[in-house]
């Protein structure tokens, strides 16, 4: 009986660890008490390479010929095959109107909401998107001249709407002045964004970025020709 009691006393801690630990009850009987986290099996080594790897490295070190890629093939050059124009390309939305007049002038296309500026030699020196009016009125297509300029002005119908760099060249059907100017402001905020230029958003005037409006203000003096196309 004393021998049985002694054996039960020795086995009790082992049974308790098996119940409360993360390993299964049978795993404790297979643990190798001589192993550690840094001990590798006798047949393995972190620094041992397979013999096939050594032979590959050795062949590269011996100066094996490099494999030619598309850019290193000798005796050949890239060539372009024949090209055939199947149809005429569509006109660019930024192509100037064919009926835009002649000489030093500003050409404003209402359908394209774009302005082109020509010098005396009929060379386009500037082009930019604008926001005007799309329909045939205000202004009607035709040839005009700049007749008035104001550094700052406001809307007659709504004085809370103001803008700068006004270059007048026409009058609307109801007698209002029409010209090039910057995007208007109302209560300190622009009435449209620059990203919206190219859309017909005004009642007749031609809205531009402030940078383009300053450029037009400096270039289009009294008498400058303005051609408006549909």
Question: What do you see in this structure?
Answer:
- Helix content is about 15%, strand content about 25%.
- It is built from 3 helices and 11 strands, in the order ααββββββββββαβ.
- It has a domain of about 120 residues: L,D-transpeptidase catalytic domain-like (Beta Barrel), CATH 2.40.440.
- It has about 230 residues and is of the alpha+beta class.
Provide a compact summary of the structure.
With 230 residues, the protein is of the alpha+beta class. It contains 3 helices and 11 strands, in the order ααββββββββββαβ.
Structural class: alpha+beta
CATH superfamily of the domain at 105-229: L,D-transpeptidase catalytic domain-like
Q: β content, as a range? A: 15-25%
Can you give the mean pLDDT? 75
Strand tally, please? 11
Attribute tags:
alpha+beta, five-stranded mixed beta sheet, 3 helices, disordered N terminus
Describe the secondary-structure layout.
Blueprint: H1 2-20, H2 51-61, E1 105-109, E2 114-118, E3 124-129, E4 142-145, E5 148-154, E6 161-171, E7 177-182, E8 185-186, E9 189-190, E10 206-208, H3 210-219, E11 225-229
Parallel strand pairs: 1-11, 7-10
Antiparallel strand pairs: 1-2, 2-3, 4-11, 5-6, 6-7, 6-8, 8-9
């Amino acid at each position: 009986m004393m021998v049985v009691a002694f054996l039960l006393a020795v086995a009790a801690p082992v049974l308790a660890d098996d119940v409360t630990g993360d390993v299964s009850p049978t795993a404790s009987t297979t643990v190798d008490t001589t192993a550690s986290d840094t001990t590798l099996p006798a047949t393995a080594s972190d620094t041992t390479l397979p013999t096939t790897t050594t032979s590959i490295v050795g062949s590269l070190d011996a100066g094996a010929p490099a494999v030619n890629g598309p850019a290193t093939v000798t005796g050949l050059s890239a060539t372009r095959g024949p090209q055939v124009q199947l149809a005429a390309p569509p006109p660019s939305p930024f192509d100037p109107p064919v009926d835009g007049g002649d000489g030093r002038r500003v050409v404003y296309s209402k359908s394209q909401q774009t302005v082109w500026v020509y010098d005396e030699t009929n060379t386009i020196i500037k082009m930019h998107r604008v926001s005007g009016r799309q329909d045939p009125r205000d202004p009607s297509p035709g040839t005009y001249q700049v007749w008035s300029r104001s550094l700052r002005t406001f809307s007659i119908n709504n004085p809370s709407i103001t803008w700068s760099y006004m270059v007048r060249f026409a009058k609307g059907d109801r007698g209002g002045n029409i010209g090039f100017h910057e995007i208007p402001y109302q209560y300190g905020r622009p009435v449209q964004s620059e990203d919206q230029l190219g859309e017909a958003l005004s009642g007749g005037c031609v809205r531009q970025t402030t940078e383009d409006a300053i450029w037009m203000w400096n270039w289009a003096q009294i008498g400058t020709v303005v051609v408006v196309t549909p």
